Amino acid sequence: MEKGRPTLYTPELIEKAWNYAKGGWIRSGDQVPSVAGLACEIGITRETCYAWAKDETKIFSDILGLIAQTQERMLINGGLSGQFNSPITKVMLGRHGYTEAVKADHTSSDGSMTPKAALDVSKLSTEALKEIVAAAGEAEE
Question: 45, 60, 100, 109: which could join 52 in a potential S-S bond, CB 3.0 to 4.6 Å?
Fold first, then answer.
């Protein structure tokens, strides 16, 4: 006999979860599907959703995966079309791994910041090297 309270993880609850993930979130009035929305609809906490998703004996990770995938797609489309608030969309897409990359260009249009090539003394003639050494000696005097 099992001890503790009975589990809420039942076939009926899983069916309700799949229904939410497959479009029930629209009937629930959610703008995008979310784990929080799912949790409210099926009467459990977000933490329980994530715990069940980690349990390999349960299929809950597939439900959360579908919710995340649908949410990501809706955010991209809603953000591009202007349907969704840009700052909120940006924050939410950050949860899906999207980032705003800033590329720094360390060159100048006139070439003034272009690094100069180093002097390769191995390519200088013996005469040129002697002149450099002589000039350095004169500069020290």
Answer: 60
